[in-house]
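*Target chain*
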Amino acid sequence: MVNTDNSPSSLAGKVALVTGGSRGIGRSICLGLSAQGAKVVVASRTETDNSADAPYEKYGSGTIGDTLARIEEQGGTGLAVMCDVSHADDIRRLVDTTLDQFGRIDILVSNAGIDCESPVVDLEIEDLDRCLAVNVRGPVLLCKFALPSMIATGSGGSVFCITSGAARAYRLGRVGYSMSKAALDRMFLSLAEEVRDNNVAVNVLSPGRVDTWMNRRGDWPGTAHIPMAQPDAIIPAAVWLANQNAESFTGQLIERAEFGKTWGPGIPV
């Protein structure tokens, strides 16, 4: 069975929790889900705008408040919660706050992530530890704390993470980042089997090269020839994934650029 619903209000009555929602891909996902009727909890550690000092001001730091304001401007309902996903207590509080405010979680998007730029021989241990804490441990704990409530509803749900092509290809000086994303992929694909019987979909979405702050601030060797999509390009794929359950689409690692071609509405798994 394939859930083809991507129409306006297709997510009405549902509650979505999105980490890394202050800017870039995360902000676009928040706005896209809200436009389809979902109540959206915007989570990020970014409460203060740092863009004034950014060499690329357009791509500087947004805030959770900025994203919430955009949601409300388009007629949506949301909540902004500060959360550093490297801290277990922050994640637990994020989930508890969401449940206290909205009573449920139907859609869980693990988007928060950081880079780790260094050849192995020069890699600072503290940088590696934080990269793994944010990109691997954080998503595991997010699922650990949020899934019990999703399972308890008995109505299924959708969980997906944002990965990177770096997990599957060599990038000079990015061993730490690449290994963290590879671990994230494997964790989510394994989790899909754990919650299949609970009708919770779990998928991994690779956005391709997107015009975000992280990509603007680094000229990654071997990637300059790859065109950068705008963050909003991810919205159709994210909305469709949010509409899925384990009966319709789960356990997949998919490319955003292939949405509507090899996967998506009307395309059987």
User: Anything to note?
Assistant: The mean pLDDT is 88. Residues 119 and 173 are 4 Å apart (CA to CA).
